[in-house]
Design a protein that fits this description.
Blueprint lengths: L1 H34 L2 H10 L5 H9 L4 H13 L6 H9 L4 H13 L6 H9 L4 H9 L2 E4 L3 E4 L4 E13 L10 H17 L4 H6 L2 H8 L9 E16 H63 L4 H21 L10
Helix pairs in contact: 2-4, 4-6, 6-7, 6-8, 9-11
């Protein structure tokens, strides 16, 4: 009985060891094939992309996905491009998009666009979508400007919407201005073109003059695009800005004139009040002087310098003077009763 139990235990132990060996072998194989991607090496070899197994192992150690590099090399090789694994790996380590660069090079080669690997990687590392840029070179893009307001010389306001057809300028894609700059320059050109027109009707009759004037300015200089055409999509007539400004100016001039007139009136009133005050002051001085006459006469009587007859003579002279004044004044008309 004991022998049977020992045999069962021995069998279980043997089975456990075998299972452990199998699991360890599987883990070892997984680690082996992870660090030594034989499948990718075989795929690259049969596809014509030359890369050694040692290079794939080193990619793992440098934390570069070998599948990304191998697939990019296979695609470029099938498209007739010779790209080395070192170039692709260096671009990946720099933070670039390897597959997007390879796709852009393939598209540029098929479309006969002059684009090399160095320029493509520079565009990609600059933050632009290099594949989209190549596509835009083949298939131009239409940019619709917002509604631009401009005023002709006769004062009429016009609202213009333009459509700008552009394609990518590969040579200026790195460091070139974007769509916002193109839209701003086109809007500025529209304002200048309409502002130089003597009459808004001439702009409505020939809207192509705007396109010709704007295109002649070379607005795509320093941008990442080449302007192919500028088409006027819509023109609307707005307000008469000239008349409105003249009305506002006239209203402002009227207010200024009224303010100046009010200032002059206030000054005249103040001057009149000042003259009245001076007249009252002069009358007060006269009354004050006349009040001194009786005192002087009384003093003259007391001192004996003036006699009674002299006083009567003076009164007669005053009465005679008042009579002459009354005779010399014209007669006043009697007031009519209403």
């Amino acid at each position: 009985m004991k022998n049977l139990i020992n045999m069962v235990l021995l069998a279980d132990f043997t089975i456990g060891i075998m299972i452990g060996i199998i699991v360890a072998s599987l883990i070892g194989l997984w680690i082996l094939f992870y660090f030594i991607p034989i499948g990718l090496w075989f795929q690259a070899t049969i596809s014509g992309a030359r890369i050694s197994l040692l290079q794939l192992i080193f990619m793992r150690w440098r934390k570069v996905p070998p599948s990304v590099i191998v697939n990019a090399m296979i695609n470029s090789k099938k498209a007739g491009l010779n790209l080395s694994s070192d170039e692709l790996e260096a671009h990946y380590l720099a933070g670039g998009k390897v597959q997007a660069v390879v796709n852009s090079l393939i598209s540029a080669d098929k479309a006969n666009i002059n684009l090399n690997f160095k320029a493509a990687t520079a565009i990609d590392l600059a933050g632009r979508d290099v594949f989209e840029a190549v596509q835009m070179s083949v298939n131009p893009k239409v940019i619709t400007t917002p509604k631009v307001s401009a005023v002709a010389k006769n004062g009429i306001q016009l609202f213009v919407i333009a459509r700008v057809t552009v394609r990518t300028n590969i040579n200026q894609l790195v460091g070139g201005a974007g769509e916002e700059t193109v839209i701003a320059r086109v809007g500025e050109g529209i304002v200048t073109s309409i502002g130089s027109a003597h009459d808004h009707r001439s702009v409505l009759e020939n809207p192509d003059t705007i396109s010709k004037t704007v295109l002649a300015k070379g607005l795509d200089a320093g941008t990442a695009f080449e302007i192919l055409s500028i088409d006027i999509a819509d023109i609307d007539v707005g307000e008469n800005i000239g008349a409105k400004l003249q009305t506002e100016q006239a209203s402002a001039d009227l207010k200024v004139a009224q303010a100046k007139a009010e200032e002059r009136r206030a000054m005249a009133v103040a001057s009149e009040q000042e003259m009245k005050a001076k007249a009252q002051e002069a009358r007060a001085k006269v009354i004050e002087a006349e009040a001194e006459i009786p005192k002087a006469m009384a003093e003259a009587f007391r001192s004996g310098n003036l006699g009674i007859m002299d006083y009567y003579k003076m009164k007669n002279i005053q009465a005679d003077t008042e009579m002459r004044d009354s005779i010399s004044k014209p007669p006043q008309k009697p007031k009519e009763n209403k």
